[in-house]
Design a protein that fits this description.
The chain is mainly β and 224 residues long. The chain has a single domain (17-222), classed as 3-Layer(aba) Sandwich (Protein Transport Mog1p, Chain A). Helix content is 14%, strand content 49%. The strands form three sheets. It has a seven-stranded antiparallel beta sheet with strand order 6-7-8-12-11-10-9. Strands 2-1-3 form a three-stranded antiparallel beta sheet, with no helix packed on it. A three-stranded antiparallel beta sheet has the order 4-5-13. A hairpin with a 5-residue loop joins strand 7 and strand 8. Mean pLDDT is 78; it is low at 1-36 and 64-69.
């Protein structure tokens, strides 16, 4: 049930890595399985992490992933709307859910350190397409000085714009990295901003399997 007694929802600011990573550090990390993914570096030094082979012009390095693959399908309908979202993710514990005046906010995390935040608001002015919504939100997020610019990449699907990047910061003197996917969309006069992330303290222990599975499985669902 929605907790409408929470503080009023405000227009979303750029994600704060230290706030998000708090949940990841608090959660109990599991290492039930290990996987490999490719770290691809081009001639300019731009880095991309992907599950497909690197291009012939890129330097390739296999990177071990850690974490549980215990994921399942979740469907989340937006209050007072005829639509929602379905996605595959680890079992999530909700930390916040609020709805007010056409705005909706949802936050949750898993024991494996997967963090999800969802923000929905009425589209205004010229923000009536997924590209217009993504331009609006990404301009705010891109101001974050902790983002490692060379790790930023973006691609389009039929319904969403997806931007991935790494953030580097310190927690209690310990260097930390955070993998991030920002997913933007537009549905029935609403702008959608989804942020998923996972933090780690070693460059060679990068968890991407849960984030990529989420982004690949994300779909709009219509109420029957």
């Amino acid at each position: 049930m929605l907790n409408n007694a929470l503080k009023p929802i405000k227009r979303k600011r750029a994600p704060t890595p230290l706030r998000l990573v708090h949940f990841a550090l608090w959660a109990t990390l599991t290492c039930q399985n290990t996987y490999a993914i490719n770290k691809c570096t081009d001639a300019t030094g731009k880095i991309a992490f992907q599950d497909k082979p690197c291009a012939s012009s890129q330097q390739a390095q296999a990177v071990n992933l850690h974490g549980s693959t215990a994921i399942g399908k979740t469907t989340l309908f937006i209050p007072n709307e005829r639509w929602g979202l379905s996605f595959k993710a680890p079992k999530l514990k909700k930390t916040r859910e609020a709805s007010q005046n056409g705005f909706y906010q949802y936050e949750a995390f898993s024991k494996s350190g997967f963090v999800l935040s969802l923000f929905v608001e009425p589209s205004e002015g010229k923000r009536n397409t997924k590209l217009a919504c993504s331009d609006y939100y990404w301009k705010q997020t891109a101001r974050n000085p902790l983002i490692l610019k060379k790790t930023t990449s973006a691609f389009e699907t039929e319904d969403f714009t997806i931007v991935s990047y790494l953030v580097r910061f310190e927690s209690q003197g310990q260097p930390m990295y955070q993998t991030n996917y920002n997913i933007y969309g537009h549905q029935q006069n609403k702008c959608l901003d989804v942020h998923i992330s996972k933090a780690f303290d070693d460059k060679e222990k990068i968890e991407l399997s849960q984030l990529t599975e989420f982004s690949k499985s994300l779909r709009y669902e219509q109420k029957k």
